[in-house]
Structures are given as C-alpha cells and as structure tokens.
C-alpha cells in the first residue's frame, strides 16, 4: 500500500502544488507591499498641493453651487424628471404653434373656397356666353370638327386591340363649357394614342434594307441640294460681276 501511494499521480504533483502556492503568496504580498509604499510616498507629496489650492477649490465649488441654486430658482422645471420636462416642453410648443396652425388652416380653407367660387363663376359666365348665337355656333363647330377628325383617325389610324371605349361626354344642353372641354380633351388623347401605336407598329416591322435605302435617299437629296445651292451662288456672282464689266467697257 505504501508503494502504491508513493507511485500515485496525486503524490507526485503534491510538491509542485505546494511550490505554486508559495509563489502566488509571495507575488500577492509583494504587490500589496508595493501599493502601501506608493500610497505612503504619494500622500506627503499631494497633501501640500491639496492644502495650497484648498481655498480656490472651495471658492469654485461655492460658485457652482450658487449657480445651480439660481438655475433651480429661475427654472424650477430642471428639478423634475426628464420625461416630465419633455412633456412640458412639448405642451409649450403646441400651445405656441397652435394659433399659427389654425390661422394657416383658415387661410387655406378660405383660398380653396374662393378658388371654387371663382371657378363656378367662370363656368357660369362662359355658359352664358356660349348660350348666345355665336356661342352655339362655336360649340356646333367643335362638334363638327370632332366628328371629322374621328373619321380621319379611324381611316388612317385604325383602332388597335385593347383600346378602351371613349367615355360618354356631357351633353351641350347640360353644360356647354364642360362639353367643349371634354370633347377637345378626348380628341387629343385619342389622336396621341392612335399615332403612337401606329408609329410603334411601323418601327417593329421596319427592315434594315429599308433603313439603308432611306438613308441613301436622304444623302442623295442633300448632295443635290448642295449642288443646286452652288449653282445658284455662281449664277448670282456672275450677275453681280456683269454690271461692273459693262461699266469698264463703256469707260474704254
């Protein structure tokens, strides 16, 4: 049994653990001694400095305290919690801005009402003018022109698949102004859509040879125009020089 205990791992590591324990104790004791030495050395050095500036430090401290007292007296809210300060500031801002916001809303409503009234008056006056003989002729001319343009569009720019039906217009008997405006607007929209779809379809079917032929034709036309301009310029120059030659011959 004694031999077994001597050969066990615990018995072999015991001396190492004891040495490690002594080493740690020595390190801690050395650190503590160094701390005590530093404290004992620093106190004699710092005590005179602290004593020397004690008056100035006290005066500054008193001034700061007085300043805080004045702030608390003038602004008692600083002693309240942050959330309460935020709520109070928000309430003050809302109370100060609310009259201005109300004035702006009133001005906006007034302007909107005036614009609506002016619009109604303008439409009424326009309807009164269109109810005259000349006005009826003008409305009839717009309708006739619309019918003619629609026929031309249907012939030269036929409708495409998926085109929406035109909305029903207000009759001229109900409101001549709105009837004229809707007629012109519908005609413009229809013309733009038909022309766009027609051009897009032609661009999809165009060929490279057609583009080359077109460009060659344009270049030939440009050359011919340049040639004609040069010929015209030479003719003008000759006509400008001929009176001068005649005068020289007469002098001779």
Automatic annotation (TrEMBL):
Where is it located? Lipid droplet
The organism sits in which domain of life?
A: Eukaryota
The record lists the membrane-crossing segments as none
> Where in this protein does the record put region Disordered?
233-252
Q: Which Pfam families match?
A: Perilipin (PF03036)
Family, as annotated: Belongs to the perilipin family.
Q: Which PANTHER family match?
A: LIPID STORAGE DROPLETS SURFACE-BINDING PROTEIN 2, PERILIPIN
User: What is this protein's record name?
Assistant: Lipid storage droplets surface-binding protein 2
Q: Which organism is it from?
A: Lasius platythorax
